[in-house]
Design a protein that fits this description.
The complex is a heterodimer of chains A (273) and B (318). Helices cover 74% and strands 0% of the residues of chain A. By secondary structure, chain A is mostly helical. The two termini of chain A are 17 Å apart. The longest helix of chain B has 36 residues. Chain B folds into 2 domains: 78 residues, no CATH class; 218 residues, MetI-like fold, CATH 1.10.3720.10. Chain B contains 13 helices and no strands. The two termini of chain B are 17 Å apart. Chain B is an all-alpha fold and 318 residues long. Classes of the chains: A mainly alpha (273), B mainly alpha (318). At the A-B interface, helix 4, helix 5, helix 8, helix 9 and helix 10 of A face helix 1, helix 7, helix 11, helix 12 and helix 13 of B.
Chain lengths: 273, 318
């Protein structure tokens, strides 16, 4: 009943629909770029180098005549993969820490939360930079670095939710009814705690996309000629005077994705209230 | 009170020590071979060296010692103000940072001030106007501002204001005009973060009975908004001052790289590219120190600004 009402409410929000469609489009294009472009991302064509955006080349072409739209689409898998890995790390580690901390309480809780405090004392991007320094460059190290950076947020939110749900009457009722703690945790606490965590996951997907694009923009991502979004934008920077589209259009593509993710997360948050 | 302050300071020092240790562990314990990293950083091929040379290099970089001994060496050095030696430039790290901290301090300070003013103004106006479309637009603006990657904002500003209009230089740190675009880039993000928190705080404050009372006794809406609502709404937002400073500090890495400013942020980017471990460790430690210190100051000042919160009440009154 409530869920159905939520769905109809959602379809009445045009901005939410547009944002969701865009995210779906980026995800689909990351796995099936052939659906949206017939060109090859590495095919050079000196005759049509440095063309502005237009009918033939939606995002224009680069110095080697490669189609930028195609390169952006073929860059999606790398960045999306990195984002998913980062989120998976943050979810697995953050959820585990949060559940253990909130569920067991006491000394375990105190120790784990102090550890989270320490992680939070190092500004995110710098923590990521030290991890990248130690692991080397590439999509995976960047994903790991960004994932570790968003663990604290997940751990704290999960812990707060577990603590809140743990004291609710139905948990007590389940315990009184003879259910073991393990069963209570899996059947009663977790299903009722995941809402705010899911909202945070969508929000952090946006944060992760920005962080991953920034790190590859700084030069720590996949090696050329692979076309990660951040790398594309960084390369285009050298031609900013004459060919603005080379970095601004991929940049806009990324910005719209983050904007959409943030809007989706915000809409969910408003609905939950 | 003194006991509270002492305890809070001790806690901050402990957190910093732990953060330093964690960063050290990440940089020195992860699977990559520190010897190879450091040889690569010094521009030497490992194959071209004999076993004795490798041993000598290890001794020179202190890598022949156990990890515990290295940690102790670095930590005692840090306490004496020695941050080690850069592997690529062969000069003390403190010297490198001292050379480049100026532009970063200017940038961060200017950006923090601009963000505070812009963020407060935005939140103030967003909650003051009653015409709904404008109100909605202003309330949504911070969410949009926080969504744009900083390198995108920076490149857009360069393209528009340097190349199209020619108002500001695109690169470098010469003169005040070179500061404008970097400061704007950081402020877009930092003021958005602040405005989001402030708007929420405003909404809550405006629902309080004392606002109704102030209006009822005949004060104008603008007077109530400025004197009663703003001052009370700004207090909770103070707690994110640390976050704002954290944002300005980390932003300097991307922003200084895009605008080619010779600051500590760019030093961080260069040393990660060169895998210059001591410099990375030093910059991370420095940033964590700034961040933790600002949070500590906010924590200690908060009771002075908001008399309702006191660290003394626990014994008698309640």
């Amino acid at each position: 009943m409530r869920r159905g009402a939520h769905l109809t409410q959602l379809t009445r929000k045009p901005l939410f629909l547009i944002a969701s469609l865009y995210v779906v489009f980026v995800l689909v294009s990351a796995f099936f770029p052939r659906l949206f472009t017939s060109r090859d991302p590495y095919q050079t064509d000196p005759a049509s180098a440095m063309q502005g955006p237009g009918a033939g080349h939606l995002f224009g072409t680069d110095i080697y005549g490669r189609d930028l739209w195609t390169r952006v689409l073929y860059g999606s898998p790398l960045t999306i993969k990195a984002t998913l890995i980062a989120l998976a790390i943050a979810l697995v580690v953050g959820l585990t820490l949060g559940i253990v901390s909130g569920f067991f309480g006491g000394v375990t809780d105190a120790l784990l939360m102090r550890f989270i405090d320490v992680l939070l004392a190092i500004p995110g991007l710098l923590l990521a930079l030290s991890i990248v320094t130690a692991l080397g460059y590439g999509t995976i190290p960047v994903a790991v670095a960004v994932g570790v950076g968003i663990v604290p947020g997940f751990a704290r939110t999960t812990r707060a939710e577990v603590l809140r749900v743990k004291t609710l009457p139905y948990v007590e009722a389940a315990r009184a009814g003879g259910a073991g703690w393990g069963r209570v945790l899996i059947r009663h606490i977790l299903p009722n705690s995941w809402g705010p965590v899911a909202v945070l996951a969508v929000l952090d997907a946006g944060v992760a996309v920005i962080a991953i694009a920034s790190l590859s923009f700084l030069g720590f991502g996949a090696a050329p000629p692979a076309a990660e979004w951040g790398t594309l934008i960084a390369d285009g920077r050298n031609y900013l005077v004459t060919s603005w589209w080379l970095s601004l259009l991929p940049g806009l593509f990324v910005a719209l994705l983050v904007l959409s993710l943030n809007h989706i997360s915000k809409t969910f948050q408003e609905l939950a209230r | 009170m003194t006991r509270y302050v002492a305890g809070r300071v001790a806690q901050a020092v402990a957190v910093l020590w732990a953060a330093y240790t964690l960063t050290f562990a990440i940089l020195y314990l992860l699977p990559s071979d520190p010897m190879e990293l450091q040889l690569a950083a010094a521009g030497i091929q490992p194959d071209s060296l004999t076993a004795e040379q490798v041993a000598a290099m290890k001794a020179q970089f202190g890598l022949d010692r156990s990890i515990g001994a290295q940690y102790w060496h670095h930590l005692t050095g840090l306490l004496h103000g020695d941050l080690g030696t850069s592997l690529t430039q062969r000069v003390p790290v403190t010297e490198l940072i001292a050379q480049r901290i100026g532009p970063t301090l200017q940038l961060s300070a200017a950006a923090a001030v601009v963000s505070l003013v812009a963020g407060s103004a935005l939140a103030y106006l967003a909650t003051f106007f009653r015409w709904n479309p404008l109100r909605v637009a202003l309330t949504r603006l911070p969410a949009v501002g926080a969504s744009f990657p900083q390198f995108f904002v920076a490149l857009f500003l360069i393209q528009f204001f340097s190349f199209q209009l020619g108002w500001f230089p695109a690169l470098g740190n010469e003169g005040p005009s070179s500061l404008v675009m970097p400061v704007v880039t950081i402020s877009v993000l930092a003021s958005s973060v602040l405005a989001q928190v402030l708007v929420k705080s405003f909404d809550e404050t405006l629902r309080q009975p004392y606002i109704v009372t102030a209006r009822a006794k005949g004060l104008s809406r603008s007077a109530v908004h400025l004197k009663h609502a703003f001052r009370n709404a700004a207090l909770p937002a103070m707690t994110i001052l640390g976050v704002i400073v954290g944002v300005t500090v980390t932003s300097s890495i991307v922003v200084e790289t895009v605008f080619t400013r010779e600051g500590v942020g760019r030093l961080a980017q260069e040393s990660v590219l060169a895998q210059d471990v001591p410099v990375v460790l030093a910059v991370v430690t420095l940033a964590a120190t700034v961040f933790v210190t600002v949070n500590l100051i906010v924590d200690l000042l908060y009771p002075l600004l908001d008399p309702r919160i006191s660290h003394l009440v626990h014994k008698g009154a309640m």
